[in-house]
Amino acid sequence: MSSDSGSAIQKRFGENLRSIRKSKGLSQETLALICGLDRTYIGGVERGERNISLVNIVKIAQSLGVEAKDFF
Amino acid sequence: MSSDSGSAIQKRFGENLRSIRKSKGLSQETLALICGLDRTYIGGVERGERNISLVNIVKIAQSLGVEAKDFF
To answer: Which residue, among B2, B22, B42, has the nearest Cα to A34 in the 3D structure?
Structure first.
Protein backbone atom coordinates (compact mmCIF):
# COMPACT_ATOMS: atom_id res chain seq x y z
CA MET A 1 0.00 0.00 0.00
CA SER A 2 1.35 3.41 -0.88
CA SER A 3 0.94 5.79 2.03
CA ASP A 4 2.38 9.01 3.32
CA SER A 5 4.83 8.97 6.21
CA GLY A 6 3.66 10.38 9.51
CA SER A 7 5.98 13.37 9.22
CA ALA A 8 4.73 14.19 5.71
CA ILE A 9 1.14 14.02 6.99
CA GLN A 10 1.95 16.34 9.91
CA LYS A 11 3.85 18.77 7.69
CA ARG A 12 1.05 19.07 5.14
CA PHE A 13 -1.56 19.55 7.87
CA GLY A 14 0.57 22.22 9.54
CA GLU A 15 1.02 24.14 6.31
CA ASN A 16 -2.72 24.12 5.72
CA LEU A 17 -3.42 25.28 9.26
CA ARG A 18 -0.89 28.13 8.98
CA SER A 19 -2.34 29.23 5.65
CA ILE A 20 -5.91 29.30 6.99
CA ARG A 21 -4.89 31.05 10.24
CA LYS A 22 -3.08 33.77 8.28
CA SER A 23 -6.02 34.16 5.89
CA LYS A 24 -8.10 34.99 8.97
CA GLY A 25 -5.56 37.61 10.08
CA LEU A 26 -4.90 35.85 13.38
CA SER A 27 -1.55 35.47 15.14
CA GLN A 28 -0.59 32.16 16.75
CA GLU A 29 -1.03 33.92 20.10
CA THR A 30 -4.57 35.04 19.35
CA LEU A 31 -5.60 31.67 17.96
CA ALA A 32 -4.11 29.96 21.00
CA LEU A 33 -6.12 32.22 23.32
CA ILE A 34 -9.37 31.53 21.45
CA CYS A 35 -8.77 27.75 21.44
CA GLY A 36 -7.52 27.51 24.99
CA LEU A 37 -4.34 25.86 23.73
CA ASP A 38 -0.72 26.94 24.18
CA ARG A 39 0.93 29.13 21.54
CA THR A 40 3.95 26.84 21.43
CA TYR A 41 1.60 23.92 20.74
CA ILE A 42 0.00 25.76 17.78
CA GLY A 43 3.50 26.59 16.50
CA GLY A 44 4.59 22.97 16.77
CA VAL A 45 1.53 21.78 14.85
CA GLU A 46 2.12 24.37 12.11
CA ARG A 47 5.76 23.22 11.77
CA GLY A 48 4.61 19.60 11.43
CA GLU A 49 6.27 18.57 14.67
CA ARG A 50 3.14 17.36 16.45
CA ASN A 51 0.64 14.60 15.81
CA ILE A 52 -2.44 16.62 16.75
CA SER A 53 -5.51 14.78 18.00
CA LEU A 54 -9.01 14.76 16.53
CA VAL A 55 -10.51 16.87 19.32
CA ASN A 56 -7.88 19.60 18.97
CA ILE A 57 -8.26 19.57 15.16
CA VAL A 58 -11.97 20.29 15.53
CA LYS A 59 -11.48 22.85 18.32
CA ILE A 60 -8.96 24.80 16.23
CA ALA A 61 -11.26 24.65 13.21
CA GLN A 62 -14.17 26.01 15.27
CA SER A 63 -11.92 28.76 16.66
CA LEU A 64 -11.00 29.76 13.08
CA GLY A 65 -14.60 29.58 11.86
CA VAL A 66 -13.82 26.84 9.33
CA GLU A 67 -14.63 23.15 8.96
CA ALA A 68 -12.13 20.54 10.12
CA LYS A 69 -12.15 19.12 6.58
CA ASP A 70 -10.65 22.40 5.34
CA PHE A 71 -7.32 21.38 6.94
CA PHE A 72 -7.07 18.29 4.72
CA MET B 1 -17.50 30.44 21.87
CA SER B 2 -19.93 27.66 21.05
CA SER B 3 -18.07 24.42 20.47
CA ASP B 4 -18.68 20.72 20.55
CA SER B 5 -17.51 18.66 23.49
CA GLY B 6 -14.64 16.28 22.94
CA SER B 7 -16.89 13.26 23.35
CA ALA B 8 -19.39 14.60 20.79
CA ILE B 9 -16.54 15.18 18.34
CA GLN B 10 -15.22 11.64 18.85
CA LYS B 11 -18.69 10.11 18.54
CA ARG B 12 -19.48 11.88 15.27
CA PHE B 13 -16.10 10.96 13.79
CA GLY B 14 -16.56 7.32 14.82
CA GLU B 15 -19.99 7.13 13.23
CA ASN B 16 -18.62 8.52 9.98
CA LEU B 17 -15.71 6.08 10.01
CA ARG B 18 -18.03 3.11 10.64
CA SER B 19 -20.36 4.18 7.85
CA ILE B 20 -17.52 4.55 5.33
CA ARG B 21 -15.89 1.25 6.40
CA LYS B 22 -19.19 -0.61 5.95
CA SER B 23 -19.79 1.07 2.58
CA LYS B 24 -16.49 -0.48 1.49
CA GLY B 25 -17.60 -3.91 2.69
CA LEU B 26 -14.72 -4.22 5.14
CA SER B 27 -14.81 -5.71 8.63
CA GLN B 28 -12.99 -4.01 11.50
CA GLU B 29 -10.55 -6.93 11.40
CA THR B 30 -9.74 -6.47 7.73
CA LEU B 31 -9.39 -2.71 8.02
CA ALA B 32 -7.12 -3.16 11.04
CA LEU B 33 -4.90 -5.55 9.09
CA ILE B 34 -4.61 -3.14 6.13
CA CYS B 35 -3.81 -0.18 8.42
CA GLY B 36 -1.46 -2.02 10.71
CA LEU B 37 -3.58 -0.97 13.69
CA ASP B 38 -5.31 -3.15 16.27
CA ARG B 39 -8.93 -4.20 15.73
CA THR B 40 -9.84 -3.12 19.26
CA TYR B 41 -8.38 0.31 18.50
CA ILE B 42 -10.57 0.64 15.37
CA GLY B 43 -13.58 -0.46 17.42
CA GLY B 44 -12.82 2.11 20.10
CA VAL B 45 -12.54 4.90 17.54
CA GLU B 46 -15.84 3.87 15.92
CA ARG B 47 -17.59 3.92 19.33
CA GLY B 48 -16.26 7.42 19.99
CA GLU B 49 -14.10 6.26 22.89
CA ARG B 50 -10.75 7.34 21.47
CA ASN B 51 -9.24 10.68 20.52
CA ILE B 52 -7.54 9.46 17.35
CA SER B 53 -4.46 11.30 16.11
CA LEU B 54 -3.93 13.02 12.77
CA VAL B 55 -1.52 10.39 11.46
CA ASN B 56 -3.91 7.51 12.20
CA ILE B 57 -6.83 9.45 10.67
CA VAL B 58 -4.90 9.76 7.40
CA LYS B 59 -3.61 6.17 7.50
CA ILE B 60 -7.14 4.80 7.97
CA ALA B 61 -8.43 7.03 5.16
CA GLN B 62 -5.70 5.77 2.82
CA SER B 63 -6.49 2.18 3.81
CA LEU B 64 -10.16 2.76 2.93
CA GLY B 65 -9.32 4.54 -0.32
CA VAL B 66 -10.98 7.78 0.77
CA GLU B 67 -9.80 11.26 1.73
CA ALA B 68 -9.33 12.15 5.40
CA LYS B 69 -11.79 15.01 4.91
CA ASP B 70 -14.52 12.44 4.18
CA PHE B 71 -14.55 11.56 7.90
CA PHE B 72 -15.59 15.11 8.86
So the answer is: B2
